[in-house]
Fold:
Amino acid sequence: MQSPPLRGSRAGRLGFGFLIASFLLYAACFIYRTSFTIHGERYFSLFDDAMISMRYAHNFVRGHGLVWNIGRPAVEGYTNFLWVLFMAAIHLLPLPASRTALLVQISAAGLLAANLALVREAALWVADAGPEPVAFGAVGMTASYLPLNNWGLQGMEVSLLVLVMSACLCVALRSMQDGRFRAAPYVWLGASTLVRPDMAVPLIAWLLFHAVADPPRRVRHAAWALGALAVCGGLQTIFRLWYFGSALPNTYYLKMTGYPSLLRVSRGAVVLSGFIWRFGAVLFALPFVLVLRRDRRVGLLLWMFVVQVAYSVYVGGDAWEYWGGSNRYISIAMPAFFVVLSLALYRTAVALAQRLELTGTHRRRGILMAFAVLLGVTILQANSIYGFDAWKEVLLLRPPLHSGPGGENHDEVQEALALRELTTPDAILAVTRAGTIPYFTDRPGVDLLGKNDTVVAREPIAVPAGRERFWAFRPGHMKFDYRYAIEQQQPDVVVQLWHHREAILPYLHRFYTPVAVAGHCVYVRNSSPHVLWNKLPPPGCDEHGQ
Structure:
């Protein structure tokens, strides 16, 4: 195995520099497209789940602790501890609420750009022949992949985790080259469990691969892996027990309990099949053909990808599978997949040139032209996440998921600002989307879907009837209890409702008044002392559009 020219040719470095500059420009446009203007002020808001973490970070910086509701018992409604602390650091800056999310997005763009450098290095290590085109293809596919950009630039911890994964792969590929043992991947993967606890999955997968591929140092691999897991996992568990009184995050109980495991896994398999179908079954299978060559480098990259896919199936997929593309769990391993896919496309182009019996300059040009065509088709297909209409999102002809003017983020920030004007700081708001509105209203909340409520999170889930039960599971969105959340807790304003609202409407009609706030129907508790009644609009609204 020859040592690859990791710096690459001068033309290759210039091409990579151009790709990085283009990506950063694209990321800037992407971030701008997620923003919107309300009352003459431009607002930046993250994906709603990321805004839940922002609320924890904001409360923490103000000295109230890691809590969703100030003055209430602490509930671990997040699963990204270090990412929350990073967001807390941003909240130390003298920025208005309309700008804090922007710094998170800019940071994510930097992390994703750094990841591209690691993707290039990994591709140069893997590609023995023609490394520059393979590296260009891997970087191009990663930089243009909408799901990875969406989850990262909308504030999820994906941007950091994908960087960790790619860094570990580069170190492992270097170790395969020079034969040296390096503990860094175990340290990084162990530390990443503090970003998301389920990063323990790639850590164990890393150990299993090297236990088979590197038998002489099997004990060292096991010691470092289990040591990293014990230290980082143990510290987090001790902290969790001390601070939250639970060994596991509240979201674990919300997503992983109260529903038959077989039905959860069946849903994961269904959404995986949909992902493969949209990606293109042939393109998806092509990299796995290279496994037949028994190349450890290719095997490691595909193994880490397969493990993340298997984990996604096990947990039932993600909550937003309707959007298409790879979910948050699979996205962090997509660069590894793209490196092998780029190599497979390049070798396909070489095989075509041989089939046409091209020689000399014609052969090289033919290979590059065929590779360029195959790469273009792959990028086009990979980003057709819900049909070719998705390219409007890729090209930013329309705002990214849930964002931009007229999107859910815009509507909820607008509604939050209106609710601030209509309520006192003690008003309790009941919501289903527990991030954006609670963050921008800065009011106590009732989380109807239980992410920040230990009672709802531990309740069972009603299993749908018929064949629907095999794919109806939606993590984090299956548990709700109107009697407990509304009738017992009596929030001052019911801002949002979830499914089967007919079960709670009689109660709301008796004790609440429906009013239209920023174009949305909300229910205000009659005679609530925390509502500014003189500022409320006239009663009445479209309850079906709530």
